[in-house]
């Protein structure tokens, strides 16, 4: 590459796991912006060579991955490093620090993934969050059950997507929830003697999600989503997101201030953030904040300026362009992450064409594979698919999504005879 080409075309290193939903959207956005992308995937070197992946990295081995990236940049310039999902956020921070690129500190990215550290920093930083305690996984659940208040929520420190998050209303439910969470963590390879988990007060109220972008510590709100379905447990499977929020403007401002305080308390200063909050008569409460954009295919419903998608906005920001003045399209938009109604083998899906024909529905995408096992929360980590809608008001978008969902029928075979589940 000659100097002129080097100056004209930016190059971004995208770090992603092999199973991510988000890779295609970022690659498509990069092509539209004429940004060269180098993909770093969490794969052993031999598999990376087989799949023709430029950079095979072990996200769990940061020193080795940094060495690989360092060797790469000796021959190729890099203008920005982005982690597509949570799995490589810490590696992205370390690598950006090594190369002198705009980044969040490694400590901030660790806090955004470790819920115990997150809670500690939020409490010190003044971001309202639930009362919490940390317990070792090898502790006696009956002893803990007698010490905590109810209702409470048991929560793993590092799993995402509500995996392992379970509500308990009394000591008996606590013991059952503890045993279930312990099985989940042990199945993930966690050590019983080295792993701990959180128990925090259950915060009543409605849940919202904020999508934002940080520039030198300043928060730009990109979208505020209402979650109209109640999320009261015992598990916390998210379903519908609708934007713009129907909350009063004063509450929306309070939510933005709460997220800004949370980001500051963790030390997050650059790039996308996705925050989850509860809202009640006492105001907003921080649940979690992640140093990444919204997960799954949910970003599809967001549009900015004259047709810019969220991934384009993030990439423009990463390479140093000014995006502060860019605003979201005025239309209401929504997405449903289709929940898994039962464990078993997915045999068939019916009603997709019917659901797609519902007015305001812009897409129905079934991502679950036929003849593959389905695992619902709290053990599972995926959805059946996504329903997308756009319209003039949030209310009509929500109703369109619900109508489309009623059209879908999922045939799931359990261990005993075939079961047809109608949603």
From TrEMBL:
Keywords per UniProt: ATP-binding, Ligase, Nucleotide-binding
GO molecular function, one term: ATP binding
Keyword ATP-binding: yes
Domain called ATP-grasp: residue spans: 119-319
Pfam family, one: LAL_C2
Signal sequence segment: none
Database matches in InterPro entries: ATP-dep_AA_Ligase, ATP-grasp, LAL_C2
Cross-referenced PANTHER family: ATP-GRASP ENZYME FSQD (PTHR43585:SF2), FUMIPYRROLE BIOSYNTHESIS PROTEIN C (PTHR43585)
Annotated protein name in UniProt: Phosphoribosylglycinamide synthetase
The organism's taxonomic lineage, starting at the top: Bacteria, Bacillati, Chloroflexota, Ktedonobacteria, Ktedonobacterales
């Amino acid at each position: 590459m000659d100097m002129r080409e080097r100056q004209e075309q930016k190059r971004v290193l995208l770090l992603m796991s092999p199973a991510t939903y988000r890779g295609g959207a970022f690659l498509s956005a990069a092509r539209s912006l004429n940004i060269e992308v180098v993909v770093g995937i969490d794969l052993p070197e031999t598999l990376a060579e087989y799949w023709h992946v430029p950079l095979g990295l072990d996200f769990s081995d940061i020193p080795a991955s940094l060495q690989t990236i360092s060797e790469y940049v000796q021959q190729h310039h890099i203008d920005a490093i982005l982690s597509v999902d949570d799995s490589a956020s810490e590696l992205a921070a370390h690598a950006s620090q090594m190369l002198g690129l705009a980044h969040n500190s490694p400590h901030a990215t660790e806090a955004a993934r470790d819920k115990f550290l997150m809670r500690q920093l939020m409490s010190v930083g003044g971001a309202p969050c639930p009362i919490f305690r940390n317990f070792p996984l090898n502790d006696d659940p009956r002893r803990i059950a007698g010490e905590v208040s109810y209702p409470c929520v048991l929560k793993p420190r590092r799993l995402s997507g509500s995996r392992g998050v379970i509500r308990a209303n009394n000591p008996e439910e606590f013991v059952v929830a503890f045993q279930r969470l312990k099985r989940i963590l042990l199945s993930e390879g966690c050590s019983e003697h080295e792993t701990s988990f959180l128990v925090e007060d259950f915060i009543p109220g409605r849940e919202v999600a904020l999508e934002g972008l940080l520039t030198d510590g300043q928060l730009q709100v990109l979208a505020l989503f209402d979650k109209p379905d109640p999320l009261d447990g015992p598990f916390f499977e998210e379903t519908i997101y609708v934007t713009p929020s129907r909350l009063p403007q004063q509450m929306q401002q309070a939510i933005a201030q709460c997220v800004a305080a949370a980001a500051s308390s963790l030390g997050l200063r650059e790039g996308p953030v996705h925050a989850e909050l509860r809202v009640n008569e006492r105001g907003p409460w921080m649940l979690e904040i992640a140093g990444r954009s919204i997960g799954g295919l949910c970003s599809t419903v967001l549009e900015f300026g004259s047709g810019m998608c969220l991934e384009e906005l993030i990439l423009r920001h990463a390479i140093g362009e000014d995006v502060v003045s860019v605003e979201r399209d005025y239309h209401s938009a929504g997405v449903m992450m289709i929940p898994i109604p039962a464990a078993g083998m997915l045999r068939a899906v019916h009603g997709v064409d019917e659901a797609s024909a519902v007015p305001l529905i812009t897409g129905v995408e079934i991502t679950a594979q036929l003849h593959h096992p389905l695992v619902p929360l709290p053990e599972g980590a995926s959805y059946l698919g996504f329903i997308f809608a756009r319209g003039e008001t949030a209310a009509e978008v929500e109703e369109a999504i619900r109508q489309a969902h009623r059209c879908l029928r999922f045939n799931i075979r359990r261990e005993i005879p075939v079961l047809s589940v109608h949603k």
